[in-house]
Amino acid sequence: MSPAVKNGSPGTNYSVGRLLLIGLLFHIVFIGSVFDCYFTSPVIHGMQSFQTQEAEAKRLVLIVGDGLRADLLLNENPFPKIKGSPNIVAPHLRSIVETRGAFGISHTRVPTESRPGHVAIIGGMYEDVSAVTKGWKTNPVDFDSVFNQSSTTFSFGSPDILPMFARGAVPRRVSEWSYSPEEEDFTKDAVELDYWVLNQVEALFRNATVDPTLKAKLHQNKVVFFLHLLGLDTTGHSYRPHSPEYMRNIQAVDKIVKRTEELVNNFHGDEETGFVFTADHGMSVIGNHGDGHPDCTRTPLIAWGKGVRGPLPDTIPSSHDEYSKPWGLNHLYRRDVEQADIAALMSALIGTPWPVNSVGVLPDVDPDRPGYLAPKLGKKALAEAAFVNAKMILEQYRIKHGLHYLQTYDRTLLRTIVTFAHIGWMLYASLYIIRPLDQPRQQVAKTITNGAMKFLPLAIAGACWVVFTIQRSPWSYYFYVSFPAYFWFQFIRQGVPYFSGLDVGVRVVGGLRENVMQILLAVAALLGLAVLTFFPLPRLTVGIYTSNSLVSWLFGDSEQLDFGNEWKSSYTSDINQVIGAVPVDRSENTFFIALGGFAFWSVAHYIQPIVLSEVGRTFGRQAVQKLERTYSFQKLSISLITGATVYSSLSLQWKLGLPLVTRVLNWTLLVAPSILPYIATSPYHTTSSKLLMYILGFAPCFILLSISVEGLFFVIYSAMLLCWVVLEKVMRYPEVLSQSKLEDGKGKGVGGGGSYAFNVGDVRLALVFLFFVHLGFFGIGNVASISSFYLEPVYRLIPVFSPFSMATLLLYKLLAPYVMLSIILAYLNHALQLPPFSLLLALPMHERRDDAHVLLSSPWTLGSWLQIGESITFFFMSSLLFLFSAGMSALGEWLMKDTVETRFERFVVGFASDSTAAGRVEKGVQNGNAIGAHASGVSDKPRRK
Questions:
Q1: Distance (Å, rounded) from C-alpha 502 to C-alpha 99?
Q2: Statement: residue 714 has pLDDT above 50
Q3: Angle between helical axes of 710-732 and 571-580 (0-180°, round to 10)
Q4: pLDDT tens across 793-840, in order?
Q5: Which pLDDT does position 848 carry in this prediction?
Q6: Transmembrane stretches, by residue range (predicted)?
Q7: Which of 35-44, 167-176, 461-470 has the lowest mean pLDDT?
Q8: Residue among 855, 834, 815, 875 at smallest CA distance from 725
Q9: What is the DSSP letter of 757?
Q10: What is the mean pLDDT of the chain?
Q11: How far apart are CA 72 and CA 235, in angstroms?
């Protein structure tokens, strides 16, 4: 009895749908494994708090300049390109450093964002990495802070920062004054946000003169004043840190620090206040932060006032390096700290109990280097502070040391299970390439694996379950071991007997031996490109050149690719490599934005006549008229949105703001043309007409959300995809360029007899597919960090700070190339006579062809356990690649349904072979009959997919 028909493939025991479902569940479950191995919360409870008995300062003022870089505050002449810029941009803070305070660098940790930075400064602990599963809520983690240990804290600033310290503290311990979120407008001068804070501080002290209760609170000991100055961060995002706006914001912060010091000292009538000025993170040259670049991790730290030492002469060897030479402070001692050390310093200054979760080390406990506390405190006081610091660390160790053992006890076992699970997944997926159960029985050797050995994985899984039950392990552990057991069981049961067959083994080994060098080089190119894509674009460009050259050398066939002595469409690849070489830190350029709009318009103008003539020959004049209206609307919208984008960009650059009417127009021009291709349900579509409609549908995204060359990138990326389709079709069926149809619509089988035979060309298809996956993701940004993406285009739609809305727009722009890739994959599947989802697994499985493809989709997840940090990000991206690709493949099949297949390869080759637009149109008309024929050549009549 023959096997049942599954997924449209008669006589097979293998369902692609079942494989996709199992793969979906497998990758979702194993994404959680990284949390079980590494993402354990550092926040613990039950520790005893300690404090120093004596303190010099009665109160503390903490001022945080959000997004302030150390070099731009302390350098001499930090803004040389700005005409008339002062040599010292912050004279008050400079005078403190030189005459009455201590200074240095506060080294932050990634992620260099506002919330983690403030948690480190005020809580003395580094951000709980487990919070990524809870979202950036106000206070998803319960931790102690300096504010919570104070008598009263008065905080002023951003609504994004203040609440998380107020809501987790003792009731009524922390008072907050914050402006509304709508005030964080990127089109306005952000300096006003900082002056708002100063105005509230002035109002507080004015009110205290008539409010006895408030006056009594202010005169208590251990009071903390917290000023969060967000202006620098907002200004840096809008205008970048080397701009005149950023310089003026630093000057404003310097004036606010001076005025605050005067207010506090005048109100209390003494000099018993300690002051600390620092920043939560720095900022990159493109106005972003979040990664570990030194510009983001080096922030200034200046302390002065009661209990703080004055300036000291520099030591031998010097405390300075190349970074601090431009400061002009080499004669003074520089004392660097870790960001979490600031909480310990503040607690020691005012004598509050130290935050119980603090991991900071008081700078003064190092006997070989001076700290920040005043020497007049005496050795006893310094020794007491050091002793308290040691007791705090010991208390955490007392609670934590047993937890660390428990948290890492299963790590080796879990990593082993994950490794075997991914190897097993690849082996299991390979069964859908070779399909051993579909082969004649005489080809499959009867070995011991048909007996007890195949149950070995199940026995191991059962033993693990017993151990997990005894240890009361998490439920996720049972799933982790179940998947590899099933994968290995199926492979041993089906695959091992199959490969043990003499005839099969000879052919497989022979195919591998003949092409071993090509295979190794191809895999090396693939893995090398994968690594390069996680780093800046210039290195990616080198990888593109190298990979393209290697692929051409390995798989090129000059006789098949000779389209008039030169395949001119390859020029698009060279142009795209040039675009990839553009530095990541590029600035907004309205010329390139407009050029991208013109590129989209040109595509619509020059390709439309050819596409419509093809539609007319296939469906008639009525279909042409309907599609002509659609294309005309798209062309008009491209012109309007290009003009609106240029206007919005210039308006923001010239600080004229963005009127509400302009914002509404931008949203309308973004949404309406973008959704048109998905709601235009015309039954009269050819492959080329629908492809053109989708390409133009992405024009609003890549014009309005563009900062420079993104529009040009997408046009060329789409052209490269179309050329790839033509290349693959011609290499498999070279007859399409010389015959009106193929003989029988079948490919030339390799190996015969329905058995597996290795084809080195299959490596090429998988390699190019993954190349386009990575190029689409990394082509317009450097995803070594999300901070490499620009916020300027988002201000044209959302001028007020709204992280989730802004991230949604950036994500839409990021995913747009993949939607185009999914559409091309659907067309390529049909052009190569493959069933849906074939290219997802890089294994064409059509029953009429005996070629099988090398599975190259899952090795990306191996080797992801090298280190926490960036490797966790890479692990997520690689694990989600399968799920994302499956979704994109399904989307492409849906978007390209109900289209008539045409000889698109003749149109592309003919278009690339002519030098003028008129010649290209004439060529398209002349080849009309050939273009309208069925792609496989089975029939000259059009056929719906």
A1: 87
A2: yes
A3: 140
A4: 888 999 887 877 887 888 788 888 888 888 888 888 777 766 556 566
A5: 30
A6: 20-39, 413-434, 454-470, 477-496, 516-537, 660-679, 691-708, 765-790, 810-832, 874-896
A7: 35-44
A8: 834
A9: E
A10: 76
A11: 14
* pLDDT at residue 248 greater than cutoff 90: yes
Its sign, for the CA torsion 889, 894, 900, 906, is: negative
Nearest CA-CA partner of 497 in 436, 576, 540, 563: 436
> What is the pairing mode between strands 59-65 and 223-229?
parallel
> Which residue, among 120, 527, 565, has the nearest Cα to 355 in the 3D structure?
120
pLDDT tens-digit map of 218-247: 999 999 999 999 999 999 998 899 999 999
CB proximity list for 463: less than 8 A, separation 6 or greater: none
Closest CA to 258 of 60, 95, 92, 63: 92
Strand partners of residue 252: none
d(CA 198, CA 482) in angstroms, rounded, equals 61
The CB density around residue 848, as the number of other CB atoms within 10 Å, is 11
pLDDT band at 857 (very low <50, low <70, confident <90, very high): very low
Structure tokens belonging to residue 525: 């190119």
Residue 270's identity, in one-letter code, is: D
Structure tokens given for 854: 């090398």
80 upstream amide cis, omega within 30 of 0: no
672 is written with which tokens?
A: 């309406």
Position of tokens 């990541």? 584
Residues 937/741, Cβ–Cβ less than 8 Å: yes
Contact 106, 280 (CB under 8 A): no
Q: Is 83 exposed, middle or buried (0-12, 13-18, 19+ CB in 10 A)?
A: exposed
Mean pLDDT of 206-214: 95
Please report, in angstroms and rounded to a whole number, the separation of the first and last CA atoms in the chain.
31
One DSSP character per residue, 118-133 reads: HIIIIISS---GGGGG
User: Do residues 799 and 658 touch, judged by C-beta distance below 8 A?
Assistant: yes
> Which pLDDT band holds residue 849 (cuts at 50, 70, 90)?
very low
pTM of this prediction? Answer: 0.73
Instruction: State mean pLDDT over 13-40.
Output: 77
Query: Which alpha helices (DSSP H) does 705-847 contain, by range?
Result: 710-732, 761-778, 803-831
Residue 925 reports pLDDT greater than 50: no
Which tokens in the block code for residue 471?
Answer: 């240890």
- Kindly state the average pLDDT of the residues 549-567: 43
DSSP 56-102: S-SEEEEEEETT--HHHHHSSSS-TTSTT--SSS-HHHHHHHHHTEE
Count the Cβ atoms, other than its own, within 10 Å of residue 804. Answer: 8
**Distances from the Cα of 74 to the Cαs of 236, 272, 277, 581, in angstroms?**
17, 27, 13, 33
